[in-house]
Amino acid sequence: MTTCTVAEEPRPLVFWEHRLYPGSLSRLSRVRADLAADLSGFDTDLVEAVSLCASELFANCVKYTDSGREEGGEVLRSLSLVDADTLLFSVSDSGGGGGVPAVPRERTADEWAEAEGQRGLLLIENLARRWGHLLLAPWADLGTRVWAEFDVDPDRVPDGLRPYVFTR
């Protein structure tokens, strides 16, 4: 008889309850306020970096997916402290965009100077340790999850955090 062992991935140190938002830019202030509340007590520079990236990623969900259409959609936010020095933030959209996020690379200096958009992912690339995306269902356009990891100073994590933080 063959035995199969499944390696368990370590659970995050802290896992905040997911938050679901209507896919509207008018909700951006709520997204930022909730993030500030959830990260209360963390280093302010970290909170500001995550908040800037969250704003960009939420706006992209609204702009490039069903979330931004008249019939609406939703954006799901997740947040976890996956180990002592890594905070993971992600948003998942409701699909309909047909593309994947990418930092534009092939522009001349003049084209960059004139460009109005697509600079947000550059912001994320510079503020986050790393970032990426995955299709929620590669066989259908059910949405995309975009995530970013941030460095956390373990000595500056607030005391008293529980493994699961429930929001409202």
From TrEMBL:
InterPro entries: Anti-sigma-factor_SerPK, HATPase_C_sf, HATPase_dom
Pfam families given in the database record: HATPase_c_2
UniProt xrefs under CDD domains: HATPase_RsbW-like
GO MF: ATP binding
Keywords assigned by UniProt, alphabetized: ATP-binding, Kinase, Nucleotide-binding, Serine/threonine-protein kinase, Transferase
Listed Gene3D superfamilies: Histidine kinase-like ATPase, C-terminal domain
Name of the featured protein: ATP-binding protein
Residue ranges of domain Histidine kinase/HSP90-like ATPase in the record: 24-129
UniProt keyword annotation of Kinase present: yes
